[in-house]
Here is the input.
Amino acid sequence: MQRFHHSQFADFSRLVELKQSVNQRISVCIPTLNEAETIGPIVSIIRDELVARHGLVDEILVIDSNSDDATMELARAAGATVHLSSEIAPETGSHLGKGENLWKGLHVSTGEIVCYIDGDISNFHAGFITGLIGPLLADPAIAYVKAFYERPLAYGDESHSTGGGRVSEILIRPLISLFYPELGGILQPLSGEYAARRSTLETLAFPTGYGVEIAHLIDLARDGKIERIAQTDLVKRVHRNRDDDELGSMAFALLKVVLRRLGRDRKLTLANPLPDLYQSWTVDGDSIHLLSKIIPEPERPAIKPVPTIG
Here is the structure.
């Protein structure tokens, strides 16, 4: 599995030459929900450096889950084309979640190469885009490029660097080691920054929530495409830290997605259907409160499924 550093693709003029030689459009797709603090600068950098100055990126799409802050207005003012996820392909229905926005983004984007980035990055620079699309432009054998980086976590007034995210290291890394060791070389399996060829993305199912990234990796492995995955070092990603309740909900959704695939791949047999009810607890003085949340984590089917042979 090839690894790159984003600085290897810092020559924007060379990337434009590569893009012209393969005659492919490039779309950047950003899923958002209440990202008013960061979305404006992210879109502005892409627009100024990669659209207006160099003509490397052809479109910037923000796919929003009906934010109740100024996310959509700021993104539009900065130069993005903004879509409400629920209004894209309305005949397919609508779900809330990151994966839903990514799947819907495939319906409105026009690029043969699609680059996904999260909307909460506070140290964003153009290398987040060029480092991911560069390998795809340079090597036709590469189909999917994942980012990896250090992720500083804030503890009070201090910041400490970590490798993968907390859910990645505590949940996903053990699951990969146990059941999908062929994915052990993926440094950031849950990274929200990646680029891929449309022809590859359209063969993948998209869980509608946080399970989308791990689902892609497992399904690419199933389809014999691990060698077509590359990774790019983006050095450091700074974003808002999630609290324990958010992380618990994320882990629940991720576990459901992985368990479904373990059953599909005949690595594990479940005695009962997976529940949608997630329960946790909070303690407030002498009071203990039960928190219940329904997390169905449905999946959007592949737009163009891989034909089954035999």
